[in-house]
Amino acid sequence: MPEIGKQIPALKGHLGDGSPIRLADLKGQWVVVYFYPRDSTPGCTTEAQDFRDLHATFRRRNAQVIGVSRDSQKSHANFASKQQLPFALVADTDETWCQAFDVIHEKVLYGKRHPGVVRSTFLIDPQGRLSQAWRGVKVAGHAQAVLAAIPAA
User: Fold this and answer.
1) CATH number at residue 70
2) Could you list the residue range(s) of the whole structural domain that residue 95 is in?
3) pLDDT grade, residue 78 (50/70/90)?
4) What are the residues whose beta carbons fall under 8 Å from the beta carbon of 15, sequence distance 6 or more?
């Protein structure tokens, strides 16, 4: 698990359209990596819409937004298209990104325990170091709080 001020692992993955993504290629800009449980669920949809609605402001602050879940590339492609998401969604089907950021923990749903993605966001500085982390995120106001943590250009 990355610590504040430490370098982020050199992660790579694939987006909904099948194209590759590498965190190392994004050095020189701020990177927001947000983890969410599932495409097209109410909370995850609201969170994606909030990041979408602030996307132009993130870009003006030289920041890229990346969403990550364990859903498939096809699921991500459908979700991104339906919600008109202008940012990348990583299909972390092998849980490499989730494990690197330690976001899979035991959750309880309807009295049953199971491993699941805990909604979390990580802000990476232009040098590739972890600047800030939010764990156990509540959706309301979160995207705005992340934006506020990035210096205005």
Assistant:
1) 3.40.30.10
2) 12-148
3) very high
4) 21, 73, 76, 88, 89, 90, 91
